[in-house]
């Protein structure tokens, strides 16, 4: 084992930049995904089939296909369309498709949105009917009940499930390395591997970084649960 | 869309490879998961520790990284081992076998947790009764614990299988000619990427839909005779 190669300045820098890229990809896709999935989850639980149907179809298709296909579809299919390539130099939303990082990010956003919508919709459906009745008795309308009663509690209750989604997504960002010119942690490991032909050292380092990230996320969510789910904790005295 | 029928057929053939990798890995994962669950529930401390480390580390590292590590690293490792025992040829690892063992190894970690929960869900009296009848440990497991744990394990097992079938798309990266690999190749040649990737995505969707229906049927079969609370 020659782990000293990893500790050389250039390679260390490669891993550090990779870590930053992974965190950036994760942060952007999770935050946009969460913002998109809250309204979609509200539509998903609607009793009107015309409203909930399209959202169901979206989550069903995205959750039923591999994320690799989604990344390929956006990077190799969508971004290679002539119609988009004609516009990606100057016309506004299409300029982003020129960047591989954006394509990867878009695929991640779509993917995490689908999973988060289903998770939130489940939490919304589980709201106890007594709470809804109480809200109605207080004279709240449908939207006010949703905003004041259902969503605050549903978002809190889905925190444990959301931690799984965040960890899954963090590991999912490793797929960004299949897109050329994106160097996340896995991408850094792959370039170290191909430069020195040291697969064990390169990928074990990457794995160790991911493991640290996983543990940090688990710890952060434990803190968040202690804060936001304090009312559901088992009593300590 | 300007598709060429020949490529669709080729991708459809790739389905066979995707399914064999998935089923092969499912077998490996189930065996490892069962062994892992038994190890975690045993009284032997080092065994418990080893099984816990296995599932924690594997679940904390992305599939892609484990796969690249095992595939590229395994190649060197096997050759180093061969040189050590005095064989001086070059051994090439079959990517198909490597793919199955890698995915099986990763998802065995997830299944070991599922199986552990399922075994713990069976009332203790069941296996105690078995021991009281004079059955050995293995027979108790085979006759009493296993048939009952299947029911508890099916929901987690269904989830793992659905995630796993999608994870097989990653074997295209280590060069196996599965659906994804063929779709990528076809779209590279014809320059109509949309058609082929959408086609591959549709096949995955069909596979996951059929699996869901089959596993729901299995769930009903193994739950016969169990009364469910009505809401």
Q: Please give the domain count of chain B.
A: 1
Distance between the termini of chain B: 49 Å
What count of helical segments of chain A does DSSP give?
A: 11
CATH superfamily of chain B: MetI-like
In total, how many domains does the architecture of chain A comprise? 1
Percentage of residues in strands of chain B:
under 5%
Low-confidence stretches of chain B: none
Task: Estimate percent helicity of chain B.
Answer: over 70%
Average pLDDT, all residues of chain B: 88
Kindly report the CATH topology of chain A.
MetI-like fold
Class per helix and strand makeup of chain B: mainly alpha
**What's the total number of strands of chain B?**
0
CATH class of chain A: Mainly Alpha
> Could you tell me the radius of gyration of chain B in angstroms?
21 Å
Write down the overall geometry of chain A: flat
Structural class of chain A: mainly alpha
* Coarse shape of chain B: flat
CATH superfamily of chain A: MetI-like
Rg calc of chain A: 21 Å
CATH architecture title of chain A: Orthogonal Bundle
Which secondary structure elements does this structure contain, and how are they paired or packed?
The complex is a heterodimer of chains A (237) and B (231).
Chain A: H1 9-44, H2 49-64, H3 67-78, H4 82-87, H5 92-95, H6 100-125, H7 129-137, H8 142-157, H9 159-172, H10 185-196, H11 199-228
Helix pairs in contact in A: 1-2, 1-6, 1-10, 2-6, 3-6, 6-9, 7-8, 9-11, 10-11
Chain B: H1 5-41, H2 45-60, H3 63-84, H4 95-120, H5 124-132, H6 137-167, H7 179-190, H8 193-222
Helix pairs in contact in B: 1-2, 1-4, 1-7, 1-8, 2-4, 3-4, 4-6, 5-6, 6-8, 7-8
């Amino acid at each position: 084992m020659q782990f000293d190669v990893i500790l050389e300045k250039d390679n260390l820098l490669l891993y550090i930049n990779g870590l930053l890229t992974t965190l950036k990809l994760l942060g952007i896709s999770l935050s946009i995904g969460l913002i998109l999935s809250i309204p979609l989850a509200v539509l998903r639980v609607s009793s009107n089939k015309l409203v909930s149907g399209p959202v169901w179809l979206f989550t069903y298709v995205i959750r039923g296909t591999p994320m690799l296909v989604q990344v390929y579809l956006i990077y190799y299919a969508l971004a290679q369309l002539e119609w988009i390539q004609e516009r990606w130099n100057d016309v506004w939303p299409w300029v982003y498709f020129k960047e591989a990082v954006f394509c990867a990010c878009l695929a991640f956003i779509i993917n995490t949105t689908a999973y988060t919508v289903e998770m939130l919709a489940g939490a919304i459906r589980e709201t106890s009917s007594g709470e809804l009745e109480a809200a109605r008795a207080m004279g709240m309308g449908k939207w006010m009940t949703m905003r004041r009663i259902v969503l605050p509690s549903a978002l809190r209750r889905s925190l444990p499930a959301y931690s799984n989604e965040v960890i899954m997504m963090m590991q999912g960002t490793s797929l960004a390395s299949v897109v050329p010119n994106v160097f996340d942690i896995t991408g850094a490991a792959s370039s170290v591997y191909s430069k020195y032909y040291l697969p064990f050292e390169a990928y074990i380092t990457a794995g160790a970084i991911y493991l640290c990230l996983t543990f940090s996320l688990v710890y952060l969510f434990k803190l968040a649960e202690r804060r936001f789910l304090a009312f559901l904790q088992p009593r300590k005295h | 869309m300007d598709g060429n029928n020949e490529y669709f057929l080729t991708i459809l053939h790739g389905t066979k490879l995707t399914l064999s990798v998935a089923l092969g890995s499912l077998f490996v994962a189930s065996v490892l998961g069962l062994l892992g669950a038994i190890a975690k529930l045993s009284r032997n401390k080092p065994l418990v520790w080893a099984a816990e480390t296995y599932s924690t580390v594997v679940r904390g590292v992305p599939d892609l990284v484990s796969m690249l590590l095992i595939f590229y690293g395994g190649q060197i490792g096997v050759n180093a081992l061969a040189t050590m025992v005095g064989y001086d040829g070059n051994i090439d690892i079959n990517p198909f076998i490597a793919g199955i063992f890698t995915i099986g190894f990763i998802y065995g970690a997830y299944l070991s947790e599922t199986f552990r929960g399922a075994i713990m869900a069976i009332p203790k009296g069941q296996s105690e009764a078995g021991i009281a009848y004079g059955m050995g440990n293995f027979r108790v497991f085979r006759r009493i614990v296993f048939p009952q744990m299947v029911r508890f394990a099916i929901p987690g097992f269904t989830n793992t299988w659905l995630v796993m079938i999608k994870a097989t798309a990653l074997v295209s990266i280590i060069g196996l000619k599965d659906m994804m690999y063929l779709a990528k190749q076809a779209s590279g040649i014809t320059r109509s990427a949309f058609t082929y990737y959408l086609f591959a995505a549709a096949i995955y969707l069909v596979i996951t839909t059929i699996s869901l229906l089959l596993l729901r049927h299995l769930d009903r079969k193994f739950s016969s005779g169990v009364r469910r609370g009505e809401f």
